Write the structure tokens for this entry.
Amino acid sequence: IRVAADVTLRHPREPERYVVSLRQIRDQAIRLSVLTEGLLLLARRDARTLVLRRAPLSVDDIMEELYDRWHGSAERAQVNLEVERDTGAELSGDAVLLGRLFDNLVDNALRHAKSRIAVSSRLEAGAWVVGVEDDGGGFPTENRPATLEQLRRGDRLPARSGGTGLGLSIALAIASEHGGTITLEHPVGGLRTVVRLPVTSS
């Protein structure tokens, strides 16, 4: 950020180019802020000082808001985003943190998807089950990650290289704090990340 600002100040330019430079600086600041907030969240979790602001939440509203946040990015990437939102259940949770959980999973899927991301939503044995599936290529049987932690680290997974893995760590932490789990499934030609969270009504 400092280098971008110094270069912008050092070389006079047309107003339009200043706007471009300022946008780049803003985007870098946003990325740094997201990184810092993520590290702080994990530190609070590790120190057992992470506070959930629980409230009754409609799972369909969570899915509707997820679609609203991501359909534009998906369109720009020429990826079709499908989100199911007709479960009719409620859970007790932190709306901001749950939003971040699913944002991180969709962001990860969008990085790898070729043409499609499907977000499924269903009730199963007292739990809300959400699957985030992309068609970014599957893994050979011998190299399939067994856990989200292995996927996050990218161990022996060249098909899913890139990124720091921080978003997946945050997703796992948020799910755990809500009494939930995250597992992996391997449909042909892609990856499905499955979140299970307890519901309060259906």
Remarks:
- The chain is about 45% helix and 20% strand.
- The first helix runs from residue 2 to 10.
